[in-house]
Structures are given as C-alpha cells and as structure tokens.
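Today's session is about reading a structure prediction critically. Students often jump straight to the picture, but the first step is always the sequence itself: look for stretches that repeat, for charged clusters, for runs of hydrophobic residues. Only then move on to the predicted structure, which in these notes is written as discrete structure tokens rather than atom positions. Here is the chain we will use throughout the hour.
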Amino acid sequence: MELTGGPYMYPPPPVQPYGMIPPAGFVPPGPSPYAMTYPTGSIETPPMVAVPTTEDHPDLYIPEEVKQFLPYFHHHIKEKSIPDILRIYESDFNRLSERYFKEFPWPEAEQVAPFVEKDEVFLILYNELRYRHIYAKHKPTIEHRFESYDSYCSFFNLILKDTEEPVDLELPNQWLWDIIDEFLYQFQSFVQFRGKLNSRSAEEIQSLKQNQRMWNIHSVLNVLYSLVEKSNINKQLKAFNLGDDPSTVSGDFGSHSLYKNLGYFSLIGLLRLHCQLGDYYTAHQSVNNVQLSKKVLATTRVPASQIALYYYLGFCYFMMRRYRDTVRVFSNILVFIQRVKQHFQPKSYQLDMVIKQNDQMLSILAIVLSLYPQHVDEVVNSQLKDRRFQEDMTKLQQGDIATYKKLFTNSSPKFISPVPPDYDALPDNYTKAPSEHQCNIFTKEVEPQLLVPVIRSYLKFYTTMPVTKLALFMEKDESVLREQLLRFKHKCRTIAPASPNSPEAQSVSDIDFYIDGEMIHIADTKVARRYGDYFLRQINKLQDMVNK
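Below is the predicted structure for this chain, in token form.
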C-alpha cells in the first residue's frame, strides 16, 4: 500500500523535460519539493555539476530537482527510515522517472556519486533501480544486460559476504521482493535475448561467446539457494509450522528482517525458476515448508509475492495432475486478488502483471473444470462466466484441442532453456523449443481425456446402464468403450490435497462408477452445495456498507 505524508508530496511545478538542454537564463519555476525537507546541518549540498552544451551528450544533463532528490533519498537510506524509503521508492522515484527520463535512462552511478557522498551501498541500490527502469521503459542493449548482472552481483555479494554480522541495511519488503522478481525476470530476458541470434549483430554474438559466465543458470540458482541458507528460512518455517518460536533457530542473520525476507522471497524465486525449467517436482519441494493455509511470517506478506507463489504452485499442481489442489490454490488467490487489486499503483507494471496472472489462472481453471467439473467460489465462478471466457469454455466442452493448446500457451509461464546455445549452429526455433516441448507434453496428456466430458454427460443421467447402450450412444465399439471407461477412471484419480504424501488417490470427478459384467453402476459423488459461505459473505458486505 502506498504511504503518503510530508509537505514535499504536493506535485512539483512544471520543469524542463529531461534530455533537453535548458536555454540560456532558464530558471526552474518554484522551489523543489525536496529542498524543504532536509534536516538542518545533516546533509551538505554537493558542488554543482557543469551543464553540458548542445555539442555534448544531452543524456548527461541532470535536472536540478534530481540533484536535490538524490541526497534526500541517500539520507533516508542511511537513517533506515522504512516508511520514507517506501514512499520514495514507490512514488517519488517513479514520478521523477516519468517526468525527466522518458527518453534517456537515469544517469550512471559515477555521475550521481558526488551527490550521495560516493556511498557504495547507496550506489549499488541506485544501480538496481536504474537498470530496472531501463528494462521497463527502454530497450536494454547487451552492455546494459552485462552491467545489470554485475550490479546484481555487487548487491548479493554485499548481502552474502562472509562476515559474522549482518550487513547494516534495511529496505522495505516490497523493494526486497522486487529485487528477487526483477533478478529472475532479467535472467529470463537474457535467455530469450541470446537465443534470437538472427536478430543479433556479429559483435553481439562475439560478446555472448566471450561472456558465457554472464547470467549463468548455476550463478542464478546459487544466489537463491545461498539466500535461503543464510537466512535459515526453512528452519524458521518448520518451527513455525510446529508451533515453536522461529527465533530459536533463526540465527544472527535469520533474525535480521533483510535476510529473513530475502530468504522467504528466494523460496518463491526457486519455485518460479524450477517451474520455468519444467522441473515441477523440485519447484514444489522448494516451497514445501510454506503452509498456504496459515499466516506464515506475516511480515513478509507482499501481495505480488503471494500472487506469484500461488500462480507457480498452482501451475505445478496442474502439470502434476493434482487437479483438486490446482482448483483450491487458484480459487483462494483469485479471491485474494479481488481484495488487494486496488492497493497497486495505477498503470504500474506490477498491476499489469497481476491482471495478466489473474487471467492466466482463470484459463487454467477453465481447462481443469472442463475436464473435471468441481465446485468453485462464487467470485471465481462469476469471472469464468465473463464473456471473455464464454466462447473458449464452449469450445473446451466440445473437445476442441486447438482451444486447449491456445489456453495452455497463453496461461503457462515463460519456459526457458538452462544451458547457453551453440552460437555456431543454433536451430531456428531455439527460444520456442522449451515452450513447445511443454505444450506437447500437455497435449499428449489431454488428448486421451477429450472423451471424459462426453462419457460423464451420459453417465450422470443414469444409475445403471448397459455397456452396449453407452457404446450405441457414443457410436463406439464396445471394446473401445471399455478402454475409454478405464481411462476415465484412471485420469480422474489424483492425490488428495490433505495428504500429499499418501499413496492412495481420490477421484476428482463428481461421477463414480464400476462395471459388473455387462452393466455400468453409477454413483453421484457430488456434495450438496453449501450456501452458508455465500450468505456470510453478503452479510459482511452489507455490514461494511452500513459502517460507511
């Protein structure tokens, strides 16, 4: 949630757009909002930097407001003022970026160093924000990608250095999650970048060959596993789940909020990365100690991180054929999204990602529910009835395999290859190969199940039915039908949500049956609908309206 406050939050007066050299005699109209917030005597204004002429690079020009903003930001980082840092991070930095840096990136760290006392820690954090802005608003070059990797190495080396005491740094949870999230996004972006050799110049290909250590999968995994190990987060989660005090096993680093939160977010990062690599079992094991039904380490709860946790975990369940778990996980988070969506900044990349993942989860639910109808929350059911999904839902019920492929492709994560390509003999579809491989696995799993909804539609009208009669309805040979009925029984069985380690499976269908000789005996396993939750939710809504 965005925090506001302070006299400097009013919109500043219009000033010269960044990237344009101010004309002679130009004076910014009105004082900067940051000028009135400096603590007296605590910050020294650095010497002025000469403004370049039109013959110089215009992107070297640093606006006056930015010159005053940097010491102000640096001061709050040093003071570890979390509310102020969060406000600057979520509001002020984005406002200045929109105002001055639409055409050019933020200045390089060397240019802003004189304004922040050449503070190495602050410059590392500044670089993280600078390169993230380049990725979000500009087209990063190969040099930007390499420099960003070095910047992340500097940050993680600072955090993971071999010392007996934690680093003296405090950052908002939202920023810590964004660091992990952006780190993995830039790795994913680099993998896609290096795979499109047809779009690369000879110099770029040569640079890729010479710098294969950059964005190496082993380095990325090492960072995440090191943060998990340093923070003792798994030990803390196990203690929490057993009702014990996590502080007894946290250690010096795990008791520090910076390490604890980075460790927790790294677990979600490992879930995401292994999921993108197609290793769903390892992805699930990464968050095995995170209990979704409990308020685990509430201080780490960042809405975007929780949505990512549920999305990637639900997708793992989906690919592992644990359909009840898929429905349970996605239903919970889709209801959660409706509650927290208003807390995201309008027109931000985070809100766009949340909306995208919301639609992705609805698409996966549509696939699961078309094959194995189950009860879902009213909020989720109303979204599935939206006109955006109605046409696809109808085609899924008709067994249209092309619609299944389309929804899977649109709703799945960006799959990546863990190894660098052969730059001398790269296949044309290298970047698409991981996604196509996962889609083929999904298609082979779904194609034999396309008759499941058809068989179910006939069986639900009977309690007993001859095999020959069902074969006549479906226009199938009796031996073929028996194979389809066995496949129906097999595909409808999955591990129970309450006991993931149990060898016994349960049916996910609302119809169960057995064959006795030539007769099919059908039992309706559907539980009567519970209306209590619906009425309680409506009562709470009415109570909120009355209180207002």
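Discussion point for the tutorial: The chain is about 55% helix and 5% strand.
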